[in-house]
Amino acid sequence: MARLKIVADANIPYVAEAFGSLGEVVTLPARELDAERLQEADLVLVRSTVKVNEALLGASRARFVATATIGTDHLDVAWLESRGIAWAAAPGSNADSVAQWVASALLTIAERRRFTLGGLTVGVVGVGAIGSRVEGLARALGCTVLRCDPPRERAEGGDFVPLDDLLEASVIVTFHVPLIRDGVDATFHLLDRARIERLDPRAIVVNASRGPVVDTAALALARREQLLAGLILDVFEGEPDVPPSVIAACDLATPHIAGHSLDGKANGTLAIYQAACAHLGVTPRWTPRRALPPPPLRRLVADARALTDESTALMVLRRFYAIEQDDAAMRQIAALPEGERGIAFQRYRASYPERREPAGLDLQLLPPRPRAVALLAALGVNLVQYGGA
Predict the structure, then answer these.
(1) Bridge-partner residues for 25, per DSSP?
(2) Count of domains for the chain
């Protein structure tokens, strides 16, 4: 029996180790995954920068396609299914990574502006794997949480609110929905100019889902017009060439890396490996547990006597991730000439520095700082042997 040929985006971590037992693995940069190179592929593995459609695979023998990402808007699912090509994604794989990014973003802007998140109303739009984690973080900080998720509301009922009501009542609005362009649950420009005008002038808008979920240009203009108090973006319309005016309007801007922790990407590889094994009828044997390097920090004893709950949480998170570094990189990219910005954006994502999640850290705080403890526990930190007051 001929050995399977597996062609994969080189930016999928551990792909050769994971898939090596299933066939011959060829890794290529995303820009080189073209129709010619995929003609002889049996399995095709991509990330979100590769558009998978008839133009790419019409002449290929591929019978299985997987994306190591939670989103699938870059896959022409209808065409794949019409050709009998099985497909898979990695839903929820980077949820903890995005939650880490949101926590870092909100705590950082609160520190800069010298306000407290606790007591504010947070509107979470899209309450799936990521939105649920963000909801948990907000509640841990003592925030009131409003949730909008029409598909979940129809399926299960419960405590959900209409989007317009959420926008009017929330000081922080954060988006965690897939990009859907048509139909009753369309999310394209879910936040447009008309809805921006419904926002509280104190509002801070956060988008780490897909760029076109919000009208980016309208948001940037509203920020300059002081119709909202803050703007934090990880995703943009027109990626990878993002207009400098959009970045200038952001309080924090990062180059589509919210889900790019090494842990999250390894989880994505595991998800598509398991899906491929199921497709092939093979028992999965690879796990990223042994492949991942040791965490940068296993135990931390922290003196929080001079800190607030929120500054304590941010201090611990910064030992793993400082969002300011990605923000600075995005601003350097925005300052480049027009023809160079997109290239630099893609290069930064492809060679993203190793970033780890805090899950598994053993932390001793003195004093315990209840809200910091709750938020860090929601991110998987183990609180041990609390000290006295």
Answers:
(1) 6
(2) 3
